[in-house]
Fold each of these.
Amino acid sequence: MSNHTLIRLAELIRIRRAERRCRWRRLDASRQALLVLAHLRNGDTYARLAVGFHVGTSTVWRHVCEAVDLTTARSTGLIDVLTAAEVKTFADKG
């Protein structure tokens, strides 16, 4: 995955933490993004990631779920835009 993906995911995590006014987390946003991308890209298990990032497996699980929820929420808007564009294109041809 690109460095841009890591930076973008870390920024989404920072924004979410600011919205929730999170005061402390074991991993900062960039390390959480790296953990999540390692899981998604390489399929590393929660246990393996927990050892590598010096956190518990439940922390890994929470971080992965949070990041997946963030990206899913953003992609819903994209799907709506693409669907609307497809409908418009179809109507223009008809």
Amino acid sequence: MKIEDVILYDGVCILCNKWVSFIIRNDKNKRFKFAPIQSKFASKIINEFGGDTKNIDTIFLIKSNEVYTKFQASTYALYSVNKIFIFIYALNMILPKALLDFFYDFVGSRRYKIFGKFNSCPLPDPKIKDRFIND
């Protein structure tokens, strides 16, 4: 199955939902589609790419059948929708992945405490529902 430009995110995480909203607002070409990690679609895709479906401390970005995670995935999406983020994305070429992912994991492991979480994945606004992949 060829999957392109799909972002899988923690659907109950308030920070993650705000980040997805930011990407959607800035994605003028409607490049990205989205699915919560908690969906059947996401589980299938993550399994297909050999990922851990229990790992919801990261986002997954699938582009040209390659999977990006954590810092690289988040900064690639930001840079893709607004070139001003080139400086943040360029850190992927300068600093070791382990270091960047350490900082990503530091925030990721505390995101519910800091930003909160929903009881269930919120439904997308009907105006942008076409940007989300249904199970």
Amino acid sequence: MAKSKELKVTLLKSKFGRLKSHRDCVAGLGLRKIRQTVTVIDTPENRGMINRISYMVSVEEA
């Protein structure tokens, strides 16, 4: 079985004062604190959440 691609997502800006849908995307990716990094699988669903909050996060391939 081939290893699925993973992405390292880091929260750079506060989630407070943002739209509820954007806060939900942050929570959906498993991010809680600023400068926290999580590893997520590269799926269309996760890409969509990352694209929506691209101004708040940095992304690199794991």
Amino acid sequence: MPHPPIAVPEVGGDEITKIEATEKAFDTAAEDIADYDPETIVVISPHNTMYRDAFYIAKNDGGTGDLKRFNAPKPHVYYPYDTELADEIVRLCDEYGIPVVYSEEDSDELDHGTTVPLYFVNRRIPPVGGDTAAYKIVRIAPSLQGDDVLYDMGYLIERAIAHTGRRAVIIASGDLSHKLKEDGPYGYIKEGPEFDKAVTDVMKSGNLEDFTLIDEKVNDRSANCGYPGFVMLAGALQDYKVTSDLLSYEGPFGVGYGICIFDCENWYVRLARMSLETYIRTGRRLEKHMIQQFPDFLRREKAGVFVCIKKHGQLRGCIGTILPYYDTTFEETCELAISAGTGDPRFEAVTASELDELVYTVDVMGQPESATRDMLDEKRYGVIVTKGNRRGLLLPDLEGVDSVEEQLAISCSKGGISPLEDYDIERFTVERHT
């Protein structure tokens, strides 16, 4: 999404008639977001505090957004911050050596790069009580580092979303070239429209990694503010099958505004779904021509996997492995999806008539490590309890499990272990794909 304050009626007045396509696209994108009903919206904005060699993440309970500097003090909305998700992004950045400034500086007041897109979202998801957003946000500013670091940062944002199990939307907020017209605020240069065409071509294709193939000279001279956020978005979506919908592009004021929706289906979930559906309908595993559509990374890694299937919010089957049984995560996911749909002893096998009603979650297991009670966190870590040859396991962040004691009690019950016994505890992380 772009972020021109002039697009907001309280700022632009009659001028918004000159960007009707952008106005319509803002509303379409906002409606799409509302249909998804996100818990959290992550906004990548270049008008947050920016550092050359570090990413900025706002740290606070929340911040307020308005456009009073553009003579529009209303609407005035308070946005609570998703501190748990922000903490997890920072933790992953520390683990992988990506510099982050996690600061309360400038955290109280939202920048217009964040406020403008959220203004349109709020027309479809009305604030609670009129002045508090009905969702949480995470505010991030790109750094001025290379494409590889931007791409990796985007991926860690997505991993943090998976670790916390958030139903989230990512908005890459940024205008395209500011040099499209001689009579525009920044003049004209031929690289301006060249950049905008290159960016919108990538948006239309859905091959977001191609952002990094845009000519560096064209990028630098175009005077855009969106490119770093676009590369971060590409990194965030690398594990997904992306379907793009370029809603609009125009630049009547000399600045390029492009709005594009990327609907994402997680590759792990797509694999689980396709594996079970193929088996139920044909009695066979995936054939070679079906397998070729999946990315290579699924065949490079090896991990335990849990596949859980729900129907109308109720569990319909769940089977998993703590440690990998097959040679690749690809095989692990395929086989466990079939087992979850046909081999869970608690349920009858899934029938073909149910397939369109099923929702899948694929948890990729981290390596278990020995732990004590005070090292557990029911939201962040799964737990394994063992006594002799008896073992019970519970995944993290499950609905209705609100304490470590509940988590341990359920795990013991599943393993036939008395809570009064002296049992061993292990903890593990999962990457949750939904």
